[in-house]
Design goal:
The protein starts with a strand and ends with a helix. It contains 6 helices and 5 strands; from the N terminus they run ββαββαβαααα. The longest helix is centred in the last third of the chain and has 22 residues, at 143-164. The chain is α+β, with helices and mostly antiparallel strands. The chain has helices spanning 27-34, 68-71, 90-97, 107-120, 126-133, 143-164, and strands spanning 5-12, 15-22, 53-56, 59-62, 75-77. The chain is globular. α3 (90-97) packs across α6 (143-164) and α4 (107-120) packs across α6. β1 (5-12) and β2 form a beta hairpin. It folds into 2 domains: 5-81, Beta-grasp domain (Ubiquitin-like (UB roll)); 90-164, DNA polymerase, domain 1 (Orthogonal Bundle), CATH 1.10.150.120.
Length: 165
C-alpha cells in the first residue's frame, strides 16, 4: 500500500495551517519538521514517556503515536502555544519559579499534562498531581520540584482568575 500525500488542515496554537502529508504521518513529525515547534520532543516513539505530549482539544495526547489524520479538525496546542518568553503561562512560570528542571527533556510533557489537569481541577491534591503526572518519565529525579511547580501553578492561576473577577 502506498501512502499518498494529501493536503491536511491542522489547527496548531490557534492558527490553521495546510500541510501536505500522508494521513498516517505521526503528528509529532509534522509539528517538529513542518512547523518548527520544538516543545514536543521525540523520546520513546511508543507513547510511553510523555516527552511528545500536546493537547488535542485540551486532552494530553502523545503526538508520536497520533496520526495527522486524527488531528484534522481539532485544536492542537503545543508548549509554544501556552505563552511567550515575555508573557509565560502561569504553569510555565511556576516551573521556572520552582526550578522544576534539570535536563528539561520531560518538561514539555509535564507542563502540558499539568495544564490539562489544572483546567479540569484547579486545586488538585498532591496525590492527584502525582497520579496525573505518573505517565511522564523524568530520569533526572526532579519529581518533588515538579509537584511543587504544579501546586504553585494552581496558586498563580487562582490569583490570576481572582484578579479578573
Amino acid at each position: 500500500m502506498i501512502n499518498r500525500l494529501a493536503p491536511l488542515a491542522l489547527k496548531v496554537n490557534g492558527a490553521t495551517h495546510l500541510v501536505s502529508a500522508a494521513a498516517d504521518t505521526p503528528l509529532l513529525c509534522l509539528l517538529r519538521n513542518d512547523f518548527a515547534l520544538n516543545g514536543p520532543k521525540f523520546g520513546c516513539g511508543l507513547g510511553e514517556c510523555g516527552a511528545c505530549t500536546v493537547l488535542l482539544d485540551g486532552v494530553p495526547t502523545r503526538a508520536c503515536v497520533t496520526t495527522a489524520q486524527v488531528a484534522v479538525g481539532r485544536e492542537i496546542t503545543t508548549l509554544e502555544g501556552l505563552g511567550t518568553r515575555a508573557a509565560l503561562h502561569p504553569v510555565q512560570q511556576a516551573f521556572v519559579e520552582e526550578q522544576a528542571a534539570q535536563c528539561g527533556y520531560c518538561l514539555n510533557g509535564m507542563i502540558m499534562t499539568a495544564k490539562a489537569l489544572l483546567d479540569r481541577d484547579p486545586q488538585p491534591s498532591v496525590a492527584t498531581i502525582q497520579r496525573e503526572l505518573s505517565r511522564n518519565l523524568c530520569r533526572c529525579g526532579t519529581h518533588v520540584e515538579i509537584v511543587r511547580a504544579v501546586q504553585r501553578a494552581a496558586e498563580l492561576l487562582a490569583a490570576r482568575d481572582g484578579a479578573r473577577a
